[in-house]
Amino acid sequence: MRLQVPIAKEGVEATVRAVAKTKEEPGAELVEVDPPTPGPGEVLVRVAAASICGTDIHIYNWDEWARSRIRVPQILGHEHAGYIEEVGPEVHHFHPGDYVTAETHIYCGQCYLCHTGAAHICRNLEILGVDRDGTFAEYLVVPESVLWKNDPALPPKVATVMEPFGNSVHVVMRADVPAKTVAITGDGPTGLLAAGVARAAGAASIWLSGLLDARLEMAEALGAHATINAAHDDPVEVVRRGTDGLGADVVLEMSGSPVAIEQALEMVRPGGRIVAFGIPSRPLTLNMADVVFKEVQVLGVVGRRIFSTWHEAARFLPHVDVARVVTDTYPLDEWQLGMERAVRREAVKVVLYPGGQ
Ligand SMILES: [Zn+2]
Ligand SMILES: [Zn+2]
Predict the structure, then answer these.
(1) CA–CA dist 32, 14 (Å, integer)
(2) Phi first, then psi: what are they for 74, rounded to 5°?
(3) CA 78 to chain centre
(4) Of 5, 125, 227, 258, which is most buried with the most CB atoms under 10 A?
(5) DSSP-derived secondary structure for 190-259
(6) What is the CATH number of the domain that holds 255?
(7) Which residue range is the domain that position 130 belongs to?
(8) What stretches of the chain adopt beta strand conformation (E)?
(9) For residue 322, what are the CA distances in angstroms to 66, 252, 256?
């Protein structure tokens, strides 16, 4: 469903507050909209917590990718946790009051990829907050098919981060890290959490390179054995020195930065694997001769396997301090403060509370 009424009308009762992109330009605004109604197979979720992700920042900044993909008006956000308020017709497995979060990749269930265990890259994929109205709102409609029941003991500010945590889990599981040397490029939340997952999964050694000392400290607290501030030291040199000049068995590229992507190709050992997760904001060139001569596998990874990654994430949760990446929490009214802190990289993970703190 789409945003119906972008601006609050005086006297209209029972409107829903939401953060939406209403114009094709940088920024977003707090608006009041008609409450969404769940259709067949859908539920209405009262959002308890929603978190800001890189995708939201791309949309907020209105970069090249956002301009090509987003149609306004559109409510932002995909990560969230909340309580089912109402179920639509033909909902069979969930009930009002259930504490849920959602897989944000809404799949068709009928295409070749859905039929063969790859629903997260469904041919008819719709992403919450990208292709349909998102989670930075008091209420949200989502299909039952993507819901995940949370452990009631999990606070909403952690439950909302299960989606990006699932990204980190998916990346690490595809990388096959036990007893391997692992280099991670990128100090965003998914990179930091990947360090924790790789440690829990039995990586032999983990380096994480980034640009902010506070985040590098966080990476070590989460499980990285060593960190590299790429503003001062060359991550390629450090990783090579630590591996007898060989290079890392596995590199997890979690930043999307062109410089880091080049470094990933230099720091991976011959015959090693690069898992590419970070999304560059524009197309870039890659030295394919290096890929060939080093026999490097470059594996793109997106989203989470539905729902096997969610089960893995639930099992990793006791072993990774996910709450540590949540540095900022705000009521929905103060969303812009949180967004600006995220844009300036002062906050790691920002959680918004649409129902108040
Ligand atoms: Zn996300
Ligand atoms: Zn499909």
Answers:
(1) 9
(2) -155, 130
(3) 9
(4) 227
(5) HHHHHHHHHHHTT-SEEEEEES-HHHHHHHHHHT-SEEEETTTS-HHHHHHHHTTTS-EEEEEE-S--HH
(6) 3.40.50.720
(7) 16-160+321-353
(8) 16-21, 29-33, 42-51, 74-75, 79-87, 99-102, 105-106, 126-127, 139-143, 147-149, 181-185, 205-210, 226-229, 248-253, 268-276, 297-300, 326-331, 349-353
(9) 28, 18, 22
Q: Which residues are catalytic?
A: 55, 58
Tens-place pLDDT, residues 16-26: 999 999 999 99
Ligand 1 centroid – CA 249 distance (Å): 27
CB 62 within 8 A of CB 24: yes
Ligand closest to Cα of 188 equals 1
Rounded Cα distance, 353 and 70, in Å: 24
Assess whether pLDDT exceeds 60 at residue 2: no
Interval between CA 129 and ligand 1 midpoint (Å): 10
pLDDT for residue 11:
39
State the amino acid at position 187 in one-letter form: D
Q: Give distance in angstroms: CA of 80 to centre of ligand 1.
A: 9
- Pairing mode of beta strands 42-51, 29-33: unpaired
Task: Indicate yes or no: pTM above 0.90.
Answer: yes
Measured in angstroms, how far is the CA atom of residue 55 from the centroid of ligand 1? 7
Q: Which ligand ends up closest to the CA of 135?
A: 1
Per the domain annotation, does 40 fall within a domain?
Answer: yes
Of 256, 218, 258, the residue nearest 348 (C-alpha): 218
Q: How far is CA 88 from the centre of its chain?
A: 28
Q: Do residues 137 and 213 both lie within one domain?
A: no
Over 50: is that where the pLDDT of 8 sits? Answer: no
- Dump pLDDT digits (tens) for 133-170: 999 999 999 999 999 999 999 999 999 999 999 999 99
Q: pLDDT tens-digit profile of 288-336? A: 999 999 999 999 999 999 999 999 999 999 999 999 999 999 999 999 9
> Tokens in use for 142?
């989502």
